[in-house]
What does this fold into?
Amino acid sequence: MATLKEFEEALREQGMNMALALLQRLRERDRATRTIKPARRLTGQKMTPDLARAILDLHASTGMTQQEIAFKVGVNQGRVNEVIKRGKWLSDDPSAPEAVARDKAKARMRGEPKQHRPAPKPPVRKERSVAARRRQSPQGQLVFGDL
It folds into this structure.
């Protein structure tokens, strides 16, 4: 399948100026009627379960793209994708991973010190002798030092 750019180059090689002019007019018409401007960034709205349900409703009932939904509800496209594909933000559970991450980010922005949790202790490994390892190895398996 050819890209639009390859198609345009093929038209140019064949000298089809009328087709190129028509293609240019179609591009201008699409730019004029485009509802979303490229590379437009929004400051995000706080994700809530109600907003996530609204995103799912828009996705199910309209033919809007994720980008269009994002601009309509005031969040970024990545959040819309998380709601649609992974079901994030659909519950009010404050211990959900996305809620915990949001709360940590807010605490960092306020300049609050980190809450330190004790680090889990690594499991203690007991050293076994070579003879004990040989006895535990399955039959037919050679252990370094057997020869």
